[in-house]
Specification:
The chain has about 100 residues and is mostly helical. Helices cover about 70% and strands about 0% of the residues. The protein is built from 3 helices and no strands.
Protein backbone atom coordinates (compact mmCIF):
# COMPACT_ATOMS: atom_id res chain seq x y z
CA UNK A 1 0.00 0.00 0.00
CA UNK A 2 2.87 2.38 0.72
CA UNK A 3 4.19 1.85 -2.80
CA UNK A 4 1.07 3.43 -4.30
CA UNK A 5 1.51 6.61 -2.29
CA UNK A 6 5.20 6.84 -3.22
CA UNK A 7 4.39 6.41 -6.91
CA UNK A 8 1.68 9.06 -6.59
CA UNK A 9 4.28 11.57 -5.38
CA UNK A 10 6.74 10.87 -8.21
CA UNK A 11 4.69 12.71 -10.84
CA UNK A 12 4.55 16.05 -9.00
CA UNK A 13 8.22 15.80 -8.03
CA UNK A 14 9.26 15.17 -11.62
CA UNK A 15 7.07 17.99 -12.90
CA UNK A 16 8.52 20.39 -10.31
CA UNK A 17 12.01 19.58 -11.57
CA UNK A 18 10.94 20.03 -15.19
CA UNK A 19 9.13 23.31 -14.51
CA UNK A 20 12.07 24.65 -12.51
CA UNK A 21 14.46 23.81 -15.35
CA UNK A 22 12.09 25.26 -17.95
CA UNK A 23 11.70 28.50 -15.98
CA UNK A 24 15.48 28.81 -15.64
CA UNK A 25 15.96 28.10 -19.35
CA UNK A 26 13.34 30.73 -20.19
CA UNK A 27 15.30 33.28 -18.16
CA UNK A 28 12.71 33.68 -15.42
CA UNK A 29 14.17 34.42 -12.01
CA UNK A 30 13.07 35.59 -8.59
CA UNK A 31 9.64 35.17 -7.08
CA UNK A 32 8.10 33.67 -10.20
CA UNK A 33 10.23 30.55 -9.61
CA UNK A 34 7.92 29.69 -6.70
CA UNK A 35 5.24 28.85 -9.27
CA UNK A 36 7.33 25.90 -10.43
CA UNK A 37 6.57 24.22 -7.08
CA UNK A 38 2.76 24.43 -7.43
CA UNK A 39 2.33 20.79 -8.58
CA UNK A 40 3.95 19.62 -5.35
CA UNK A 41 1.78 21.99 -3.33
CA UNK A 42 -1.29 20.61 -5.12
CA UNK A 43 -0.32 17.06 -4.21
CA UNK A 44 0.25 18.00 -0.57
CA UNK A 45 -3.06 19.85 -0.36
CA UNK A 46 -4.90 16.99 -2.05
CA UNK A 47 -3.40 14.44 0.34
CA UNK A 48 -4.07 16.49 3.48
CA UNK A 49 -7.58 17.39 2.39
CA UNK A 50 -8.48 13.80 1.54
CA UNK A 51 -7.14 12.57 4.86
CA UNK A 52 -8.86 15.34 6.81
CA UNK A 53 -12.20 14.94 5.09
CA UNK A 54 -11.89 11.16 5.20
CA UNK A 55 -11.62 11.32 8.99
CA UNK A 56 -14.70 13.50 9.19
CA UNK A 57 -16.50 11.14 6.78
CA UNK A 58 -19.40 13.38 5.95
CA UNK A 59 -21.34 13.13 2.73
CA UNK A 60 -20.32 11.03 -0.22
CA UNK A 61 -16.53 10.53 -0.39
CA UNK A 62 -16.61 10.79 -4.18
CA UNK A 63 -17.61 14.46 -3.94
CA UNK A 64 -14.55 15.71 -2.09
CA UNK A 65 -12.20 13.38 -3.96
CA UNK A 66 -13.35 14.96 -7.22
CA UNK A 67 -13.00 18.50 -5.87
CA UNK A 68 -9.52 17.94 -4.47
CA UNK A 69 -8.44 16.25 -7.71
CA UNK A 70 -9.58 19.34 -9.65
CA UNK A 71 -7.51 21.58 -7.36
CA UNK A 72 -4.53 19.32 -7.96
CA UNK A 73 -4.98 19.55 -11.72
CA UNK A 74 -5.36 23.34 -11.57
CA UNK A 75 -2.20 23.76 -9.50
CA UNK A 76 -0.36 21.34 -11.76
CA UNK A 77 -1.23 23.26 -14.93
CA UNK A 78 -0.83 26.79 -13.56
CA UNK A 79 2.95 26.93 -14.19
CA UNK A 80 2.31 26.24 -17.88
CA UNK A 81 -0.37 28.94 -18.03
CA UNK A 82 2.06 31.41 -16.47
CA UNK A 83 4.66 30.53 -19.11
CA UNK A 84 2.10 31.38 -21.80
CA UNK A 85 1.24 34.79 -20.35
CA UNK A 86 4.47 36.13 -18.86
CA UNK A 87 6.90 38.17 -20.93
CA UNK A 88 10.08 36.16 -21.24
CA UNK A 89 13.29 38.10 -20.68
CA UNK A 90 15.25 38.54 -23.88
CA UNK A 91 12.36 37.69 -26.18
CA UNK A 92 13.28 40.65 -28.40
CA UNK A 93 16.52 39.01 -29.56
CA UNK A 94 15.07 35.56 -30.12
CA UNK A 95 13.74 34.39 -33.49
CA UNK A 96 11.05 32.24 -31.88
CA UNK A 97 9.02 35.22 -30.66
CA UNK A 98 8.94 37.10 -33.99
Amino acid sequence: MIYYSIIGWLGPLISVGLFFGLYRKAGLRGGIMVLAFLPLLGMVLQTLTNVGLGVLAFGDPKNYYAITALFNVALGLLPLVVLLWVDWPGHGQDDVFK
